[in-house]
Write a structure and sequence with these properties.
There is one protein chain. This protein folds into 2 domains: 1-46; 51-200, no CATH class. The chain is globular, with a radius of gyration of 29 Å. By secondary structure, the chain is α+β, with helices and mostly antiparallel strands. The chain has an 8-stranded antiparallel beta sheet, with helices on one face. Helix content is 37%, strand content 22%. It contains 4 helices and 8 strands, in the order αααββββαββββ.
């Protein structure tokens, strides 16, 4: 009788610890499931494309996802421009209210360059920014930047069509309430360099 009692008691302890172990395993599994679910949800909500996945022309001209243009933002001081802008300063055309930097585009024709323009207010802070892109492959530039700006700012705020698609002007609006405009440069004659203008103000 005592022997049977001991066996029953031992069996009860084993069953208890087995149940306790199962509960801990289930709790651990639940935590793992919750962790994965949250991670996946965040991934789905964050629909931004990795900056390095954009076309090289976008990477060279924008430099980074930070800021509004080339790592700079509206309201930044002239000292911030000097510190962050890596293009070559056009001293002859730059002054207290305008800073122009030449950006050489690698991997294309050696004549493919861009002017990064920063228009400053009376306090020498950025109030407008532009990229004047001198390239022969304008349509390609516009296509890759349409994708970039749409991913960053959302669907286009408006499109003003000209006589044909070449004359179209594209608009986006940022959450900071400034506007982004992109259009092909108008050429007065064959000597004028083709290109694309991107303006933020």
């Amino acid at each position: 009788m005592k022997k049977n009692y001991k066996i029953t008691l031992l069996a009860s302890f084993c069953a208890f610890f087995s149940l306790l172990s199962c509960n801990k395993t289930e709790e651990k599994d639940k935590k793992e499931v919750v962790k994965v679910t949250v991670k996946d949800t965040v991934k789905k909500l964050d629909n931004k494309v990795n900056f390095l996945e954009y076309d090289p022309i976008v990477q060279q001209l924008m430099l980074t996802e930070e800021g509004d243009l080339r790592g700079l933002s509206f309201g930044d001081s002239i000292s911030a421009i000097k510190r962050k802008e890596i293009g070559k300063l056009q001293k002859g055309e730059s002054n207290d209210s305008l800073r122009i930097y030449v950006v050489e585009l690698k991997g294309n024709n050696e004549n493919d360059v861009a002017d990064a323009r920063y228009i400053l207010d009376k306090n020498q802070q950025i109030k407008q920014m532009e990229l004047d892109i001198f390239v022969s492959f304008e349509s390609q530039v516009m296509d890759v930047f349409k994708k970039y700006f749409t991913a960053k700012y959302g669907e286009m705020n408006g499109v003003r069509d000209g006589k044909d698609s070449k004359d179209s002007i594209f608009h986006w609006k940022s959450k900071k309430d400034y506007k982004i405009t992109m259009f092909k440069k108008k050429r007065k004659d064959e000597n004028d360099a083709p290109g694309v203008v991107i303006r933020m103000k």
